[in-house]
Amino acid sequence: MYSNAALLIAIALNILALIYKFFPPKKINTWYGYHMKSSMRNQDTWIEANNYSGRLLILLSILFLFAALVSSSFNYFSALELSLFAFVLLLSCAGIYYLTEMHMKNVFDESGKRK
Predict the structure, then answer these.
(1) C-alpha distances in Å from residue 104, one per residue of 33, 63, 113
(2) Rounded CA gap, 110 and 103, in Å?
(3) Alpha carbon distance 54, 22 (integer Å)
(4) What are the tens digits of pLDDT across the range 37-58?
(5) Most CB contacts within 10 A, which of 11, 23, 49, 92?
(6) Quick check: helix, strand or coil at residue 30?
(7) Which residues of 48-67 are buried (b: 16+ CB within 10 A; e: fewer)?
(8) For residues 107 and 47, is the Cβ–Cβ distance under 8 A?
(9) Each residue of 23-40: pLDDT tens digit?
């Protein structure tokens, strides 16, 4: 039962990643996209941050789908393991923000101009 929940979470993450990949936010907005100060300086920073974080999200979603498929092959998958799965997923999403911010600092200066 819990392995099915992990698999559904991973599939949902893959669907979201594909939507983000094929329908990226084109303009700076308040409801869809990578919303951090570094990404909202200008249109160039917006596009770069969303492209970079989108690639990371796709990689993350594939890794979690693989982990969920491997986990679901075992008959025993407890609520504790599902909680751990969700916790690692949240930490990984925080990692996407961290890696994207590091990328933005390497590509742009403080005013949002490319280095």
Answers:
(1) 15, 24, 10
(2) 13
(3) 10
(4) 999 999 999 999 999 999 999 9
(5) 49
(6) coil
(7) bbbebbbebbbebbeebbeb
(8) no
(9) 999 999 988 999 999 999
Q: Which residue's structure tokens are 């329908």? A: 23
DSSP per-residue string spanning 44-72: HHHHHHHHHHHHHHHHHHHHHHHHHHHHH
Q: Where are the chain's structural domains?
A: 2-107
- Length of the chain in terms of residues written: 115
Rounded to an integer, what is the distance from CA 85 to the centroid of its chain?
15
The whole-angstrom separation of Cα 83 and Cα 72 is 15
- Which tokens hold the place of 79? 């609520």
